[in-house]
Every structure is written in C-alpha cells, then in structure tokens.
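BUG: 3D viewer hangs when loading the predicted structure for this chain

Environment: internal workstation, default settings.
Expected: structure renders.
Actual: progress bar stalls at 90%.

Input used:
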Amino acid sequence: MAAPSAPAADPWFQTLFADRIGGANYGKGTDIYKFEKIKRAKRKALADHPERQLLDFGIGENDDMADASVRDALAHEANKVENRGYADNGIQNYKDAAAGFMQHQFGVTLDPVTEVCHCIGSKPAYAMLPACFINPGDVTLMTVPGYPVAGTWTRYLGGEVVRLPLRAENGFFPDLDGIPAETKKRAKLLVINYPNSPTGAVATRDFYKRVIEFAHKNQVVVVQDAAHILLSYAAEPLSFLQVDGAKEVGVEVHSMSKGFNMIGWRLGFVCGHPKIVQAYADVKDNSDSGQFMAVQHAAARALRTPAIPAAIRAKYQRRLEKLVAALKQAGFTCEVPGGTYFLYTAAPKAAGDRTFGNAEEASQYLIHDQSVCCVPWDDAGAYLRFSVTYIATTEAEEDALMAETVARLKGMKLSF
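Structure tokens produced before the viewer hung:
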C-alpha cells in the first residue's frame, strides 16, 4: 500500500499574493461559492438518480442563439480584412447604433462620440467604473441581492461597500433615506439595477427622481445596470436616462446579452454623462484593446432590429406565466415579475417534517430530493430564484416541463 503523499509545500511566492485576494492565505480557504455548491449538488443528483430528469431552473443565461441575421452579419464582417485589428474604445458604427437604439427605444438623445463607449460585456464595465472614482476609504452603495462585481473592485481599490437590502415591503427599492449621514459623506458611487436581478422589480419614474435628488444632494455618481431592461413586461422599458437630470449624475450600462441572445458575444455599452464616459474610456483604454470589430458590426445590426428583443421578451413572458401557474399549484406565493427572466419567490420553510433554516438549505434539498434546481438568495430574506432560460424547443416541451415540475414539488409537501 502506497504511503500517503505529503502535502505540497507552498510556492515561494505564496506570501506575495495581494491582500485583496487573500494575501498569504490565498487558495487555502474552504468556503465554497454558492453556484459551485449548486453545480456539485446537480452532479450528485444526476449520479444518484440517472433515471430522473434534472429540472434546471438555475441557469442564468439565454437558451437561444443570436438571431440568424446577426450571425450572418458576423460571418460577413469577420471576412473583411479591415476588421482584423484592435478595436480600442470601439467602432463608430456600433456607437452610432447604440445612440440610435437609445433614441428609438427610449427617446433619449446621446452624442455617439462623447456619450457612448462600448464594453466587452457589462461585467468589465462594473470592474472599471470604480477605478474612475474610488480611493481608499471611499464608499460604494450597492443594492443586494445583486451582481457583486462593482463591489468586489471597490474593495480591491481599498474602498468600502455598503449594502442596501431590497425588501418586498419597500417594493424591492433601496431605502436611501435610511443611509447614515457619515456613510453618505464618504459615498462616491450608487450602483442600482432595474429591472432588478434577481427580484424582477422594475423602476418607476418616481424612484429614479428620488435617486437623482439623492445623487445631487450627496454628490454621488449613479451607475444604473440595465442588463435586463428589454425584458420588461408590465409596461414599456424605462431607461434611467429618460428621467430629467439623470445624465447630470451618472451613466447607464447596457448589455447585448439578455435582450438580444448574445450572451457569449461579450458586448455592451456605457452611456450618459460625457465626463464619466470619458473617464471609463480612459481606464478601459489601459485595460483592454476592445471587442472584435466584426462582433461590434453584428451587434449594430441587432440594435437596429427592434423585432429581435420583442420576440425574446414575448417568449420569456410566456414562460414566466407558465412557471408562476406551476409554482402556485405547489404552494408558492408568486406573480409574474415586472422584468428579467427570473422569478424571485419566498423559499419554503419545510418539506414534510424536514425544516429549512434558510434558502440555501431549501435549494439543496430541492436538488437532492427531487432534482429540481434553483438558486438561493439569503441577502434580504430567504428567497429562491427560478430562471425560465431552461432548454425547451417547443411550447409542448415547456408544458411537459411544467407538468413534471408540479408533480415533483407537490409531492414534497412544502410549507411556507
């Protein structure tokens, strides 16, 4: 029998890792990220129950390819020699298309030269915007639950993140009035996201007016994450920049992913106050060399084709309506959200005689016991997030999936 191998010695540079990622303890932690726990639970459910279909409502990306016209445009542009090189801070065709999109979709007029700059997906934009403003000791105000990247980079830069919980009793809007005066003094950024992921809440003009007033009063820059804006169901999509005074206090970040089925294409744009856009572009110019020009030309085609997001919106609204009906049969209290392709609903407190201390415990039980996958959120109460980006090629397949979901969940005797 072979002797157990000795633990590997630390590399000579172990003590050189930056404190922001763990310092000398980097790579030695045992904490497991929420989504990694879900992946492991899914693998175990598939191994333990190969006969049982995994009902995967945990996926956070569109299930369809980009429209054929967009893919054709990519193929055409990829074969042009002039598109081979560095794009730097973006091609004018894409900026013009983005400005045109903001005009015809929202009635917002932007200078495509000074008030629009592309990003290689919105994620890098949330990493770079804190670099424009945050010094050690500064504060970024961020809504939770939500996308953490701007907060992660705020901490990397020596800043502090103050979390603003989104609660049902406040309509899933942050309590701006409840922020302590000392915090407001140090705050430089307010990061918001509407339609909100994962709660599905949509912004109102009144809320945006309060945000603008807060920004002026406290001299805080607003970053509005509009990734899901085209997936708005209750009313026409509302841009932050549609509200008077918004462009004076911040920027809005748009994505080609959710509303155009271009998840893996990695493209978006930052738009709004020209000085903020310029600062972002300067940081970006020292961080990347731009997205492939052929991708930008293809995305410009998408932005000029309103029928594409209209069809995507209709599909996900249909699926959300079916999912709400299914979950209600199993005891959940939920309604079709105002936006996004996520359904955010209170987690069950028990299944039969098994009780759950939080949403994560409920989520793990659903996966292990019935191979039903969803994402837990415990930031502001115990909630589960169900996504309707599951794979189903026909409405009949959607209906069959819903029927199977009802059968499994009803059999668990969930209580709330």
